[in-house]
Structures are given as structure tokens and as C-alpha cells.
Amino acid sequence: DAGIGVKVGLLPEREGRHLVPTMGLIVTTSLPTGARAFRGAGLTPEAKLALGWSLAEKWGLSSNLNVARPSVGGARIVEYVGSLSLAHEVAERVGAYAETYGGRTSR
């Protein structure tokens, strides 16, 4: 399926360390355009709140909070997913990160 969406910067990146994160909102939906046997049952709207903090030189913390409304078996469900990542710049073009995530589904 194809998709369409928009990204909106809510709080811009600032120099140095700050308690207030850089923040953006991503709102998308899928469009049922694939082959009938494989495409989704309809639109699948999704919103993601992306957060990022500069912790120290070469260290950063980021998080995503997501909510989606896919159709499963002809009924809409709500999916909640969150993630937290710690990143480190090892060299100019090399980085490493550790991430944890989890989710929950409700009808």
C-alpha cells in the first residue's frame, strides 16, 4: 500500500543540552493501493510524536510515542507503541545505539 503524510516541527533543535526536547509530529495514513490479495482493508491512520535530547557531546536520547488505528478482521483497533533510544557518536561517520520499545493493542 502507498501512504501519504506530513511532518511538523513543534520545537526546534537548540545548541547544547536542554531539558526541553526537540519535538516533531508525523501524521500519516496508508492508502489501499496494492494488489487486492495483499492490500489493507482501508486507510490506516497513524500519528508519531518524535522527541530528542542532546545529553552531552556525542551522546543523545530519543523517543517515539505512536498511535495507529488499523483494521483487523473488519474492526478498527488502537495500537500504542513507544520507544527509547540512547545513541553515541563513535567516530565522524560511525554511531552506536541501544533501543527499547513496547506496545499495546486495544479494541
Task: Characterize the structure shown.
By secondary structure, the protein is mainly beta. It has no helices and eight strands. The strands form two sheets. It has a six-stranded antiparallel beta sheet, with no helix packed on it. Strands 5-6 form a two-stranded antiparallel sheet. Strand 5 and strand 6 form a beta hairpin. The radius of gyration is 17 Å and the shape is elongated. It starts with a strand and ends with a strand. The mean pLDDT is 91.
Helices and strands, with pairings:
Layout: E1 2-11, E2 22-31, E3 44-56, E4 59-68, E5 71-72, E6 75-76, E7 78-91, E8 94-106
Antiparallel strand pairs: 1-2, 2-3, 3-4, 4-7, 5-6, 7-8
Overall spatial form: elongated
Number of helical runs? Answer: 0
Portion in helices: under 10%
Low-confidence stretches: none
By DSSP, the count of extended strands is: 8
Rg computed from alpha carbons, rounded to a whole number of angstroms: 17 Å
Beta-strand fraction estimate: over 45%
Order of helices and strands: EEEEEEEE
Query: How would you classify the quaternary structure?
Result: single chain
Distance between the termini: 23 Å
Biggest pleated sheet: 6 strands, antiparallel
Structural class: mainly beta
Mean pLDDT: 91
User: If strands are numbered along the chain, what order do they take across the biggest sheet?
Assistant: 1-2-3-4-7-8
